[in-house]
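Batch manifest, entry 17 of 40.
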Amino acid sequence: MKDLNNKKVLVVGGSSGIGAATAQAFAALGARVTIASRNQAKLDQVASNIGENIQTAVLDTTNEASVTAFFANAGTFDHVVISAAQTPGGPARQLALDDAYAAMDSKFWGAYRVARVVDITAGGSLTFISGFLSGRPSKSSVLQGAINAALEALSRGLALELSPVRVNTVSPGLIATPLWSKLSDEARKSMYEGAAARLPARVVGQPEDIANAIVYLASTPYATGSTVLVDGGATIA
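Output type: C-alpha cells
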C-alpha cells in the first residue's frame, strides 16, 4: 500500500456521512486533508471532530464559477474524492423534471465540473462515489441508477484521458448516514433491520466501510478504471 503520510487530499462533500468518514480515514494515515462543501458550519464541526491535518473550504459543485474559482487557487492534490450529491428520487413518471435535472446536475455534472479542472499529481487518484443501483436498478429509483451508471462510465473514460492520474469509483449499498435522519428512529431502525435481513452480509454498511475502499483505491498504484462494490451483496441478492 502506498504511503499517504503528508499527501494532499481533497474530499468534496466532506461535511457528513461517507465524505466525513473518508476525511477521517485519510487524516488518520497522516494525509493533509481539505474537506469542501457548501455548509461552513458542518465543515467546522467535522474539522473539530477530526482535529489534526484538516482544513475546510466552501465549494458548491453545482456552480461552475464556484468550482473554477476554487481550483484556480487550490494548487495540486495527490488524491481527490467526490462524494457531494443531492439527488431527489422517485419513479420516472412521478419525479418532476426540475428535480430530475437537479439530481443529475448535483451528482453527475458536479463531479464532471470538478474532474475537468482539478490538478492532480501524476500517479495520484480521483475517486467518485456511485451506488449499487447502477447494477441493480429499482423501478422506484430509475434516475439514481442511471446517474450512478453514468458516473462509473465517466470514471473509466477519465482513467484513459487523465492517465497517469488514476480514476476509480466506489459503489456503496445502503449506508447508515445522516441521509436517513428525516425518518423516525423506529422507521429507520426497521429499514436497517429489514435490509440487513435481506443482504448476504447480514449487516447494513457504515460510512467507514466505504472510506476503507476509497483509501484502498487511492493507495494502490495498480488500481485505475475500477468500480469497487461495497454493498453487502445487494447487487447479487
